[in-house]
Structure formats: structure tokens, C-alpha cells
Amino acid sequence: MTPTRAVRPVKGGRRRSRRRADMPLLGGVRPPIALLCVLVLALAGLTAQVLGPAGEQPVPQAVLSSQQHFAEDGAIALRASIDERVTDLNRTAAALNAGPPVKPERVLSDLGKTYQKWTGTTVLDLESGKVLAARGETIPLAWLDKDVLTGDKALKPRMVRLETGDVRLMTMAVLGGEDRPQQLLIASNSLSVPAINLGQFRSMAVVATGGEILATAGFEQSEALNTDQERKELAFLQKQMSGLSAQAARETEQDPVSAREPGSRGYPGVSGTLVGGSYNGRVATAGYASLSSADPEEKQSVGAGLGLTVVALLPVVEQQAAAADRELYGLLAAGALVVLGLLAAAVLWATVQRPLLRLFLESRRLARGDLTRPVDVPRWGEAARIGSALERLRAQLGGPTGDPGGRQRVKGRFGVRGPLALTAVLLLLWCVPVGLLLNRTDDSVSIPASMVADQRDRTDLVADRVRRALNEAQADLVSTSRLIDPDDAGAGGALLEETLREHTRYQALYVLDEDGEVVARAGKEPRAGFADADEQPLVRVSGKGDKKPVVQAGAPLPGRKGMTLVGEVRVEFLNSLLKRPGLGEVRVVDSRAETIAASDGFLAFEELPRDALADLVRAGSVHVGAGPVENGLLIREGRGTTVAAAAPFSGGGVAADIGWTVVSWQNAKDFQITPYQREDRSVLAGLLGLALIVVCLGWVHLVVARPMRALAAGAEKLADGDLKSVLYPRYQDEVGAVVRSLELLRQQLQAQKQTQARRLAEPEPGVRGR
């Protein structure tokens, strides 16, 4: 067995391992160029998808979102109504229990005068089960059992079905004390659709767990329709409401924490949108929302625990399909990106990758000792500087002289940065027009009429909430005023303190005598008087010139002429009622269009930001028929469009005639309408293109351009004779491989220089003999 066969594999293995050590392991110029190609193709596919007609829905997303917000508003109104009724009944029972005994007939009479919100009330003797007094609708008592009065669910509101098939919510409170017989006060409420303005063509339903519809509103009576076509459409809508309500009930059964989007758009419960069938060119769209506590962490809601869901149904005109050229439009934009992207990649390959790989091969050849062939010097930039330095090093190592295959070139200003800038320009030729010029919109964009109508109707709903809140505040003061004894200031102050703790809507409560002097108070210092309670409105605003408006509600004390219980309503409480997603900026203004409360920050009594909004407020305050009406309009200014609405206070209660108006407005670009969505998609595509440029070209600049500039400087210093500076490779890539080869050349030159120095130091043989 010859030794050569055992040695050759070893030598070959060493040679292969040396080659692997010289080859770049990570990074280099090839990965960012490959990533550039991949990202360009991905962005091109995304561009063809989002700029063409693909993905467009038959109903604009803005219309679906508006139905979701409408259902949320209805759920909030229903939940607040249920909770307020329960709170009022419990508060009344607590006040009666704290005072002297009152006959059952008197209890129901005073209750009916203070609150007109129950369909029927009954006082029941708990020991005998005898009905002591009853008013309004007859309340059945078959549902009363031991579980209603004892256990964990004692006195909890119950839903009871009447013999007529209607469902009522029964609310209970215990009357009496230790030395008095106990009585049960029962009040029944209809679980009807909240008394809100549904607008034209919209219908709403209250749905129980399991999908049973408890109440509906907005459907016309079949007998009132004139044609069979209208009756068929009504039957279609009723069928859609039944099917969508069952589907919504299944969706809302999941816990908000496990929902797909819990608390989306600021709503704490489960809400969403559904799309039904189509009939006669109109698609049934629905929004649903479960009843949820306003703040589950701080206050439990009775209404939220009933498992109810509100469904809002609106048939909308089906959106026309996009033209066939839209698909070609997206394909052309994607094709242009592919061409420019591949051209940019080709520039980087020809001007950066290829010269760098050539330098890698040449430097490795010289480091191995192959000095016979001149270095193939690139034409320009840092690569030319490095190639010229390698050729000079080859000559210094003893290679044959002659045509070096390249000339010493003038140092350029840009080098590798030039191709990078050219690549960026090529990609910007696509990004800038797509992001800034493509699919631009102006004030000619068509806004669906349903969006203007929804803005108007939801603004009216907010106005109704604020009006009801002020009415409730004044009604609470009326209920409290009957318990105040002005002659006992200490007891009156204690009662006001307790009332202030129960009602967070007030910042101060105080009793004024006929001279305007404070008899008893709780909370902050009174900021304004309340004269002429019998002549002026019981809800009023003052404090002009201060930082905050002073909103006051008053209630005269029974049997005490000139004495008034006044409550100052916190402006923050009113602001919280105005914050509704999808409605834009909302404000409450007085008859002079001066701001009293706002969903955003505001200055007390400041004017509206646009004259058109003030004109809208004045137009809404004009009495038409029975009274002022809500209005909505489009304000087109320049390239923008604003949807605005104004809803003056109307309806019942002491707050109906104070002359306040709720006005709202928002930029139409906030709507998810197809033209605006295309503009947003175009901007997004342009931004993604810019991100592509920054990532890929920044990568090349950091791992190739900067190291090559340093490498060129080091190679020239080495060629100029600097053999002391050690060259350290920083990266395992092509540049690092060239640095390693230069370091080997430096060591060879250093060894050659030392050998020459030793030879010069040795004496000649002939000199030693003499």
C-alpha cells in the first residue's frame, strides 16, 4: 500500500476545507438583492390585489360599520334605561323606608308623578300575599316563588311573559322596616326597542338568548301598504330580521374576552355586522350589539346581565361591481413594479455583486501564491481601487510586470453609493406616483345617502341621551326634595351628602332659600345662584367667562315657597355622553351656538369652528310642524368633504325647551368608502415600496458599501507599504473574505521583507575567506 493514496485525500480534504473557510458564510451582497427581488414580487402581487376590484364588497364597509354603531347606540340606550329604572325604584324604596310610613296608594301615586316609565306597579303584602295597591297594567303574580325573594338572586329583575305573549321586565324592592310589615313593590317594564330615531327604512329588534325576538320597531304594518310588491319586501325584511337575529344571538353568547374583537371601536361588549340576502337590488345589512356595562370594573349593570342583544337592520342599495378595467389597472401597476424592481436588482448585480465576487476570486488567487496572471481590475469605484491595490501587491510579491490589466484610477465621489442611489431612483419612480398621484380623491366623491342619514339619526340619538340624562337629574332632585327638612340643616346636609355619593353626575348639591342664601350643601362650593325657579327653566347654564360652564338643575321644595334644591351637573358627565365611535366630533351648544360640552377638549362657550355648522344649528332650531327637527348635510370645501348633523332637544321633560342642540361632524375620508379605500391602499403601497427601499438598500449600504470603502482605504495603504496595520475581517461575507486575503498578502510581504533584510545582513562568502 503506497503512502500517496493515504495522503492525497488528506491534501484534498484540506484544500476543500480551506476553500470553505475562504467562502462567505453569512451576509454579503447576495441576500439583500435576493430579498429585494422577493419583496418586489410580493408587493406586486399585493398591488394587483388591492388596486384592482378584488376584495370589494357589495356593501361599503362604512355602511356596515354605521349599522354596528347604530346597534351599539341602541344597546347603550336600552341598558341605561333598564339600569335607571332599577336604580330609581331602589332609591325610592330606600327613601320611603327611611321616612314615616306611607300608604301603598300614596306610594304608587307619588311614584307615578315622579317617574313616568313603568307600565304597571303593584304593592304586595309579603306575609299574606295580598295585593295592597295597583296601578297601570295588571301584573301577574304566578312567577313569584321562594327563589325570587331568597338566595343569591333575591330581588333580581326577572323577565316574565304575559298571557298576551308580551314580555315584561319585573323590578322589585322591599318596603318597610323592623317595626313595620314588609311589603313588596313591583314595577313592570316593557322590553321594547329604545325610543330612538331609527330613520327611514331602518328597523330594530331586541333579541333574547336563543334568538327569540322580544320586540321590534320600524316595520310598517302590512295593512298600510298599497301594493303586493311592498308586502313581499316587508315579508322579506321580516324574514331577514328573524334569521340575522338568531345569528347575532349566537355571536353575542361568547364572552367579550374570548370574542374576536372584544371592545372593538370602544364598545365594551360584543358587537359586529352581518350581511343577509338581497331583494330587488337592496341588500339586508345588520349590526348587532350585546347589552354591556358602561364600566364593568366599577359598576355592575342589571341590564347587561339579562342576555339581551340589539339588532339594527337596514336594506341598502347593492354596490355596483367595479369595472373590468380596474383589474387591468392593478395588473399594470404591478407589472410596472416588477419591471422596475428587476431592473434595480440587475443594476445591483452588475455594479456591486459581480465586481465584488471578482475581487473575492482574485484576492484568493493571490493569497494562494498564483502571481502569474495580472489582476482583473474592475472599471470604477471602490472595486477599482481595491483591484489596483491588488495588482500593485502582486507586483511587490514578485509577479511578472507588464500590462496590469487595469490602470490606477481617479477616486470617485460616490463609488458603490452611485448604484444604490440609481436603484433607489428606479424604485421611487414607482413609489412616488403610486403613493401620491394614484387614486387621489377630491370633493366629488359620492357619499352614500345612508351615511348622511345615519350621522343625522345618531346625532339625534345622542341629543336624546343628553336630554334624558338632564331630565333624570332633575327628577332625582324632585325625589330628593320631598325628603329634605329645611328646618334641620344637619339632616338636610347628611341627605345631600348621601345623594351626592349615589349620583356621580353632580359636582355639588345645595338648598337655596328665597333670598338665594345656601341653607344646606354638599360637594363643591356653589358657583352660581338659581333665582326665579318658578319662572325660568329648571335646567339652565351659566358661568360665562369661567373655565367651565355651570349646568344646573333645580327642584322647588314642596310646601316651602322660594326654596329650591339645586344640583350642579358635572360637565365631564355630559362630555362622556357625547363620546361615540364613528360619529366624529360632537358638541352640545346653546341657542347662540356656543359650546357647553364636547366629546373633545373645548373652551367654555366657544363658537363652532365653521360658519356652516352654526348655520346648521340655527336651521335645526326652526320649528317645523310640531317642533324643531334634526338636519344633516354634506359640507364640500376644497378637496375635502365633511358630513355634519345637528339635532335640537325635543321630546318631553324639563330639558326639552332649554334651546340646546347637539351638533356633530367628521371628515368623509374617515369613512370606509371604496374611493377612499383605494386612495389609502395606494398610499399604503407607496409606503411599503419606500420601506422596501430602506430595508434592502440600507442593508447593502451597511454590509457592503461602508465596509468596501474601508477595505479600499486599507488595501491602498497596504499597497503603499504599510505592513504594520493588521487587517481584521468584521463579517463572514465577500468583503470579509477579501480582507482575509489581504491580511495573508500583508503577512507574505512582511515575511519577504524580513527575508531580504536577513540576506543583506549576512556577509558574502568571499569576504569571510580574506
Automatic annotation (TrEMBL):
GO terms for biological process: signal transduction. The chain crosses the membrane at residues 328-352, 419-438, 683-704. Gene3D superfamilies: 6.10.340.10. InterPro entries: HAMP_dom (IPR003660). One of its GO terms (cellular component) is membrane. This is HAMP domain-containing protein. Residues 1-23, 245-266 are annotated as: Disordered. It comes from the Bacteria. Keywords: Membrane, Transmembrane, Transmembrane helix. Residues 350-402, 702-754 form the HAMP domain. The keyword Transmembrane applies. The keyword Ribonucleoprotein does not apply.
